Amino acid sequence: MNTASPEPAAAPPIAAPPDNPLSFVEEIRHLLYASKGNPINTCIQCGTCSATCPVASGGFMDNSPRRIIALIRAGFKDQVLKANTFWYCASCYQCTVRCPRNIDIAELMYGLKRYTVWKAAGNKDLIGPTFTETFVKMILRTGRSYEPVLATSYLFTYGLPEMIQEAQTATVLMLKGRLPLLPARIKRLENFKRVIKHIIPLGDKE
Amino acid sequence: MKTYAYFPGCSLEKMARSYHTSALETCRVLGVELRELEDWNCCGATAYFHVDELLAYTLCARNLAMAEQQKLPVVAPCSGCYKNLYFTRDHLNHDADLAEHINEALAEDNLKFRGDSPVHHLIEVFVKDVGLPALKAKVTHPLKGLRVAPYYGCQILRPRKDKEDVEQPRFFEDLVAACGAEPVHYPLRLTCCGGALIITNREAALSLVRNLLQSAVQAKAAVIVTACPLCQVNLECYQKQVNKEFGTEFHVPVMYFTQLVGLAMGIPPKRLGIGSELVAVMPAIKEARETEPSPAGT
Ligand code: SF4
Ligand code: SF4
Fold first, then answer.
1. Which chain A residue's Cα is nearest to B59?
2. B105:A178 CB<8 A
3. Rounded to the nearest 5°, which phi and psi values hold at B119?
4. Hey, whose CA ends up nearest to atom 7 of ligand 1?
């Protein structure tokens, strides 16, 4: 597994722990631990990723994937973390398979999501982070996903017309037998929870 | 008979029940045994990977380890599950430290990941393992005259697994043709349906769905066929909302490839879960059959 890069040479004596021993670009590079693509510093800013991205070309991202990479490299941390780009990424991997420098851009988007989740630094107006949190908590509790619990994480952020539409769709699906009435659970749930504890030491409260 | 450890995934439990039933029905006819993985857990969809990569791999590895115990290759009908399981195995096989770390956790459930069960998507099993000639031999009710838009979506193809063609794939068209139907070519067959954005960015997702439906309808497709529950739900269940949002009048049935294959093999629609869709499939099938009656007179 990756080890942290060496401590910066002569850090001045300080009372509080250093704010951030790594530069933002380095931090982001470390996030992409499992990605097999090239690091973002090999990007030539050709814009293939942005042009191929269905969400960016639809005009929905405030910063295109190419621009996000430029901002990271220039160290514009705040601007990057506040961007909606990675939360609006659909993980379609179109950019990844087309990048001429073989950079795994979709995986970078995942990395940025994780970064903002950990640092609680993201854009508060987006649904993505809340949805993620609800989803993960649910699976850690039962081992399976359950649509009606998920709905509570986003429905209330909708406007009234959208909410009514969602409710209508849900009713029809329910009538067609396509919505579960009870959440599913895996059988060896206790073992499952212990497995998870090995990875993330969760508090025992939940 | 070829046997697989079958990982249905959460959406097939209910929302995409018809995919599950049609997969089982068609596989039986094709001589493929799907043995459901006992006590499988959610693959994490995209959400775990938003939070913690290590945890995401651990949860997928638990499923893989259970399949290995049975010495069976894994098959997943959902493209998202497939991608997660496939790449978890890939990463763990390339990174012994990661595998060791995860195995320490899995020991709590008396499991160990070794990496010997390959992971397949269900459509791969149909196209490659069963093979199209063998599949064609089972077609008794060819769907002549049915114009079908095969929708690949994302994760069956991307990220690239090996050296396969991710820009101009043909296997889905070939599968449709093997059923006797007519595959139509439309430009957006590989473009994303929005996936989970339908929840996290509805506006963007509805616009992606609109573009896709338009692309298929312009090519005069009578039905869209998918290989993923999330694509099916986005393209079908949100059609009404697309129509409201954009003033369009889409009314295209969206079915699973297993249902198409099942109909071509003469399995009764009900046993394929047909009837639980919001845009009825059968009228399109009947219309095609009426305008072009098959020689067998069906
Ligand atoms: S496609 Fe690759 S090289 Fe081109 S701008 Fe995007 S990340 Fe950079
Ligand atoms: S993976 Fe994300 S950033 Fe890349 S093309 Fe798809 S939606 Fe755009």
1. A196
2. no
3. -115, 130
4. A43
Half-sphere exposure at residue B266, Cβ-oriented, CA atoms within 13 angstroms = 11
**Does ligand 2 lie within 6 Å of residue A83's CB atom?**
no
As for the ipTM of the complex, it is 0.90
Interface probe with B: pick from A2, A62, A89, A93, most Cβ of B within 10 Å: A93
**B277: three-class secondary structure by DSSP:** coil
User: Is residue A2 domain-resident?
Assistant: no
Residues A101 and A159 in one domain: no
Domain boundaries, chain B: 2-121, 141-291
B72 within 8 A of B117, measured Cβ to Cβ: yes
Protein residue with its CA nearest to atom 6 in ligand 2? A92
Domains contained in chain A, number: 2
Apex B238 CA angle, B243 and B186, nearest 5: 80
Ligand 2, closest atom to CA A96? 4
How many residues in chain B? 298
A191 is in which domain, residue-wise?
Answer: 126-206
Q: Note whether A110 and A174 are same-domain residues.
A: no
**Residue A69: both structure tokens together:** 């990479």
- Residue A52 shares a structural domain with residue A86: yes
* A33 lies in the same domain as A112: yes
Looking at CATH, the fold of the domain delimited by B141-291 is given as: Rossmann fold (3.40.50)
User: Does A154 fall in a domain?
Assistant: yes
Show the low-confidence residues of chain B (pLDDT under 70). Answer: 45-51, 293-298
User: If you count them, how many residues does chain A have?
Assistant: 206
pLDDT given for residue B127 in this prediction: 97
SS3 A181: coil
**What pLDDT is stored for residue A206 in this prediction?**
40
In words, the CATH class of domain B2-121 is: mainly alpha
Where is B226: in which H helix or E strand?
A: strand B223-226
Q: Is the CB of A110 under 6 A from ligand 2?
A: no
pLDDT digits 0-9 by tens, A148-206? 555 555 555 566 666 666 666 666 666 666 666 555 677 788 888 787 777 766 544 44
Write out the two tokens for A52: 């191929």
Q: Which residue of chain A has the CA closest to B61?
A: A195
A chain contacts of residue B39, beta-carbon cutoff 8 Å: 186-188
Is A81 part of any domain? yes
Q: What residue's CA is closest to ligand 1, atom 2?
A: A99
CB A83 within 8 A of CB A122: no
Contact by Cβ (8 Å): A109, B196: no
**Chain A partners within 8 Å of B55 (Cβ):** 196, 199-200
Inter-chain contact A114–B191, Cβ cutoff 8 Å? no
Q: Is the CB of A28 under 6 A from ligand 1?
A: no
